Amino acid sequence: MSEQKHEQYRAEEAQAMERVVAATRQVQVAFTALQAHYPPQGSGKPSKLALQTFDAALQALEDAQATFDEILNDLLDEKR
Q1: Contact criterion met (CB below 8 Å) for 37 and 45
Q2: pLDDT band at 60, cuts 50/70/90?
C-alpha cells in the first residue's frame, strides 16, 4: 500500500473519531438543555424542540459510531 493511501486512511480514521467526539458533546449539550425542563427548574414538560434536538443529537452520535465501527472492522480485518 502506498504512503499516500496510508495517510488517507489515517485522515479518515481521525475524522471519524473527531465526529464521534463532537457528536458526544452535542448529546451532552442537548441532554443538559432537556434536563432544564424538569424539576426543580422546569415544569416536567420538555418542549418539542428540546426533545427533537436531543433526538437529533442521539441520531448523529449513532451515525458517527456506525462509521467509526466500519473503519474499525476494516482495520481488524486488515482491509486498511
Answers
A1: yes
A2: very high
Structure confidence by residue, pLDDT tens digits, 40-59: 988 999 999 999 999 999 99
**Phi and psi for 36 in degrees, rounded to 5?**
-65, -15
What type of residue is 36?
A: A
Give how far Cα 55 sits from Cα of 5, 7, 38, Å.
Answer: 36, 35, 17
Residues ≥6 apart with Cβ < 8 Å to 62? none
| Owner of C-alpha cell 465501527 | 69
Helix%, strand%, coil% for the chain, nearest 5: 80, 0, 20
3-class state of residue 51 by DSSP: helix
